[in-house]
Amino acid sequence: MGKVYLVGAGPGDAELLTLKASRLLAQAEAVVYDALVGPAILSHLPSHTERIYVGKRAGRHAMTQEEINQTLVEVAQRCKGIVVRLKGGDPFVFGRGGEEMQALREAGLRYEIVPGVTAGVAAPAYCGIPVTHRGVSRSVSLITAFSKEGGVPELDWEALVRLDGTLVFYMSMRVVPIIAERLIASGLRATTEAAIISRGTLPTEQLHTAPISSFVQGYLDYEHYTPGVFVVGDVVTFAQDYAWRSSYPLAGQRILVTRSQAQASRLVEILQERGADTTLLPTIEITPSHGWLSPEALRKPNSNTCIFFTSTNGVRYYIEGLQARGQDIRFFGDCTIAAVGPATAKELARYGLQADLMPSSDYSARGLVEAWKDSPMRQQMTHTILPTSPLASGELREELASLGLQVSEYHVYDNRPIPYTKDELRELLDEGLDWITFCSSSAVHNFMALLNLHGLQGYATRVPLAAIGEVTAQTIQAYGLCVSAMPTEATLTALADALEGKASRL
Fold first, then answer.
1. Residues 404, 383: Cα–Cα separation, whole Å
2. Annotated catalytic residue within 13, 34, 434, 497
3. Whose C-alpha in 175, 220, 416, 486 is 20 to 30 A from the C-alpha of 326?
4. Using one digit for the tens of pLDDT, what is the confidence trace for 105-120?
């Protein structure tokens, strides 16, 4: 039987995962997760991890709590390793983690609790609102606004008012006017500031502040702000001057990232640091190829050989393939090493190797050839090695061969398309996207193949497309599509800069 970890996923921002939560997700045999656990957090899971969805929100239950408890017990009983029960926020703050803990103990299963960041503190913080502040609020109360029967719970409203602190109501969007009315009726000043914070800590976060009396008038429907918290107290005034996220250059921009899941994290991180709401749609899965490891490929290169690395994948799978056959850094001896750009050079450094040659600005196959032509090392070279994939364009191989070099091309990794159902694809694309980004020609080919397979070609003309460099842009244009953003330098940071420049002109 497996051991179950009741893990808090935090309020939404994947970077608020604890180190322990991240480690457990990477090691999990199975993950049982809620509706409030977003794709950015699920991207931490290895592809082989079993995923069990038990989405549960007020009024829209995929499973009852009893069914979730039973599912968790059954999964733990058939698994042998780590089972993660992943819950939004903190499992013990209105997450019913206590009930699941009891069910696990009754079934004789081992368990452990991994606390998470709770929305009632984190969501206000992301809006510049401290839930406690000297001279303003000496206490904070976390309160559920949803009873088992479905209405507002019976609370001592006068006692809450007497606390003279900050009140944070969870699961409250349907009953915000009732909460405001009862607090005012119990003595709270009608001018006390209050706030609805929807999708707190995410790039799509929304903040609506007003005196609490405004939330009573007209009994407006606030349910469209779900999931959200209702914050009441004078600390809400801090949001006027200290809401730090609204000034981010890509705030409000919704960007689809099509890079492979293993490589997407850095681009997602860069875009989110600038305030973008990113959705990951990996169209390719990178897997190692082993057929290239012939006696010739394992022969140590001499000083007349240059190895051209055109991607981080080429570096990783070439070196790891050699290592699997007992080779180490000494294999590279006196040969020359060329890298297409800074990211590839950085990946080489991770294995203790330094690039001898790299383009100064044009980080592409063409730029690499031009850098090679200008290099004094060219004179002594007779042989080149190209670690690549079967989908490589062949441009670099042909250029080097035309220069009189003997070229040995090894397909050290494969780009396998990831299948999506039509509904899965539509759900990702029907999100009011502002951009779709492409970092390789293979991502373009696989994305278009998916659209063609499901008859969704129109999506590629509705959303602006961004390419990391000229080769990728040419692939997009070959499909008769327009490229709306492309950096002058083929790097992830430059791609984000290009999107930022476009956003600033909107």
1. 9
2. 34
3. 416
4. 999 999 999 999 999 9
